[in-house]
Amino acid sequence: MQLSLDSWPHLLALLLPLIISLLYLKKKQPTRAGDFKAYPLLGRFPHFVRNQHRLVEWSVDVAKRSPTHTTPFKAPGLPGVVITANPDNVEHIAKTSFANYPKGDHMAATIRDFLGHGIFNSNGEQWLWQRKAASYEFSKRSLRKFIVETVRSEVDERLLPLLEEAAAGRRALDMQHVLESFAFDNICHVTFGDDPGCLAKEGRAAPQAVEFARAYDYVENAVLLRFRPPEIFLWRIKRMLNVQVTKRQGPEDSLG
């Protein structure tokens, strides 16, 4: 059967109701859990920008909405990211097939100023020999005993008294700062053999230790900002131009 130009309007009239019905059904169909709108050219980048002040909470929301608790995230100019809260995926990535998931050049370059080529920022043989060395050290009974004693002392002599004093005086505490100080004291004591005393009562910590803790926190946050817009695009340019991350002056400003 041949169709002439005159028959096309009649054919379109027959197909139009079907097309409208399909579009209506598609519009009424619920969006799959975990999906979020991808914009032309920008991809899902606007979602990232809109939620960069609450990335952890947003990542949890995205993972919870997905039936598989896994959602890919792509945006122009950004490395591909997969958000997952699926235990099977986590075990596959972090344990059974760990060698197949290196940190990647983008991440390694971004945090190298902070972590160098250490175990948290290396791959392959470089990671393996560091892991073997760390595993050997941490398998020693004497080190395990020292860690337990260090943490117990920090809890009994500083953390619990601080919490009890705050509770008795009905005083609010910044628990994030408290736990960061608790962790920093323990890490420095175990790693460097020095106790900065960041969780000690005000005025009892050594000024140099307090300044070091502040510089460490500053550099850590400066590096983390490199994963967020606009720093994700600008930090390499700033380094080439020797532009500081912020206007704050101090020894930590050697990080560009």
UniProtKB/TrEMBL annotation:
| InterPro entries from the UniProt entry | Cyt_P450, Cyt_P450_sf
Q: Name one GO molecular function term.
A: monooxygenase activity
Q: Which residues form the signal peptide?
A: 1-33
Q: Which UniProt keywords apply?
A: Iron, Metal-binding, Oxidoreductase, Signal
> Entry's Pfam families?
p450 (PF00067)
**Which protein family is named in the record?**
Belongs to the cytochrome P450 family.
Stated name of the protein: Cytochrome P450
Look up and give the organism this protein is from.
Setaria viridis (Green bristlegrass)
